[in-house]
Amino acid sequence: MEFVENNSFAQDEIRLYLYVGEQEGVGRANLQQYMVSHTKKVYVILKDKVPGGADHLVLETDPEGVHDHRFFNRYFPHAMRFIYPGPNMKYDRN
């Protein structure tokens, strides 16, 4: 988080997609226990820092999500549609 707070973007145009499963880090005693809370805090920080504003940043979560390929595979297409929307397309989370 400190890195995100203390640095800015070099490029003028960027789109960022963040995903975290709400169950990531549950029951862990390592840094992974902070995965959800830190991802949400970074999202709040980035909303004011991303060139293009909040329209160029998305955070999605899954209440049952864990750090597993099942969830990665489910949300990866969302990330690609947001990051590479094509001309005149708006991002739709469905």
How would you write the strand order of the largest sheet? 1-2
Classify the oligomer: single chain
Work out the helicity level. 25-40%
What fraction strand?
5-15%
User: Main sheet, how many strands, which sense, barrel?
Assistant: 2 strands, parallel
The whole-angstrom Rg is: 14 Å
| Residue runs with pLDDT of under 50 for 5 or more positions | none
Residue-averaged pLDDT: 89
- State the total count of DSSP E strands: 2
Shape: flat
Order of helices and strands: HEHEH
How many domains comprise the coordinates?
A: 1
Distance between termini? 29 Å
Q: Please give the count of helices.
A: 3
Specify the structural class.
alpha+beta
Can you tell me about this structure?
The chain has helices at 2-6, 35-47, 69-83, and strands at 16-21, 57-62. The chain has 94 residues and is an alpha+beta fold. The chain has one domain. A two-stranded parallel ribbon has the order 1-2. The termini are far apart.
Q: Which short descriptors sum up this protein?
A:
3 helices; two-stranded parallel sheet; 94 residues
